[in-house]
Each structure stands twice: as structure tokens, then as C-alpha cells.
């Protein structure tokens, strides 16, 4: 089955669910230390009935009935063997502006740039690229993200302060295979190896 690029936020969340290995390159336009590196990103889809989704809507003064659902984003160091702390997760809630679901508001319990509750604007282009614009108290951020394949995606972001561009970030992300998926792959390969050739 050919890969279908997601063009609604909830489909984007569903396509993103799982664990991703992220390679991050950060370009600062001042003397801040290099923040490039590697990490793991854990994404879990949340239903519209999830208490976290409901709570964030209420905090932002949005009718929870307008929310289609959301997702939990948790980060950890690449070689960290402990599970990420769910209390430090960023929760994103999808509130589309129309029935197409291709544009809307993204409610967050904490932003990426400033750790404060924030409402972003998002839209999907005809090319399947997701663009998210966020106005913080002191900064403006834009993130663009798109899938190359089902298991490889790219994120590019910029942060602008009052005096201009502050930093740019490029991330390439590969989906991690779970132990269960690895076992299934091994079993399938073993079956193919012993199966008589046609």
C-alpha cells in the first residue's frame, strides 16, 4: 500500500505515534553554546475525552467539544535507559477551524521556546507540509514538519526574538522499532528462510 501523507492534525499525530530517534542541528546567531545532538522523542495520541485534553481546553477558554484530540510529546537523552517523565510531557490539543481539519489552533500546556501555555496556528499545505506559527511573550516561532516516508520525517524551525532571527533548527527523525516489532521481523525472516522456494 503506498504511503499517504497526513493532511489533518489528528492523522499527523497518528502517523507520528511511537518513538523517534532525532538528530538535531542547531544554528545560533549569537554566542550561545551549540545545542545540536541526539535524543529520543516519544509520541502518544490522546482522545478528545482524555482529561489532559479537557483540562488544557478549559485553561485556554476553549470549549472542549471543539477539540478532536491531542498528543503527548516526551523527550529523553538518546542513551538514557530510564523511561521519560510523563509529568514533563508537552501536551498538544487539536482544535480545527473547519470540517476539513487542514488548519486550526494547536493548544499546548507548554511551548517549545518558552515553557508557558500557548495557542499556535497550524495549516497543511497541498504538499503535505505542516506549518505551525507560535507567538510567545518575547519570541515568535515557526516550525515546519513533513514525512518523507512512514518512518522518516523532517522538522525545521526558526525562533525570532525582537531583534531578529535567534536560532534555526533542523531535525531528521527515524522511527524506532520496538522489541515486539523486531521479534516479528525475525520470525517472518526465519519462516521465509525455511519456506520452500516456488
From TrEMBL:
TM ranges are none
Q: Which UniProt keywords apply?
A: Lyase
- Is Lyase given among the entry's keywords? yes
The enzyme's first-digit EC class, named in words, is lyase
Q: Which GO terms describe its molecular function?
A: lyase activity
Q: So what EC number does this one have?
A: 4.-.-.-
Example GO BP: protein-tetrapyrrole linkage
- Among the Pfam families in the record, one is CpeS
Domain of life where this protein originates: Bacteria
Q: What does this protein do?
A: Covalently attaches a chromophore to Cys residue(s) of phycobiliproteins.
The family line of this record is:
Belongs to the CpcS/CpeS biliprotein lyase family.
Which protein are we looking at?
Chromophore lyase CpcS/CpeS
Organism (species) = Petrachloros mirabilis ULC683
In the UniProt record, the gene name given for this protein reads cpcS
